[in-house]
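Lines hold sequence, tokenised fold; shown next:
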Amino acid sequence: WVVLKWDADRAYTDGIGKAPTACAIDLVAVMNRSTLYLIEVKDPRGYRIKYRKTITSGEITEIVANKVRDTIAGLPWARGRVPSDHLTPFLNALYVERPTRVMVVLWLEDVDAALALSIKGPIEKKLAWLKPTVHVLNRSLIGSKPEVLAGLDVTSMPGAMGTEQTSS
């Protein structure tokens, strides 16, 4: 695994992130130099009202689709414009290795399998141009798809609700 917190990286914040409408996926990751993962993490457990509205209205699908779009645009834009040598593994996975699939993972705590499935389909439709494999997961759902994030440990931040560690 090679993982980058894209939305906090200087290549994003000093680059395309300066655009007034830009948004970014939380994590960009590469496994085995060829499978590209775009991971968005939302944990509404402490902010139920704020995030619940985006989930029940379907706005979450638009949020994720826009973040994926801007991330796919922002990675190559940053190359050569801002310090970006560390982006090579991600750009290689996307453009050189030509992955058989791009994985989009929405890590969304506190949703059940039915709700996760109802979110997955609209994200796939909005990202049809990319043809990704989309997963909506959380600590209770990862057991049904351990291969998706194989080898990663998933934990809550200290002090967050439900801080027990889950390995996947």
Observations:
- The two ends are 14 Å apart (CA to CA).
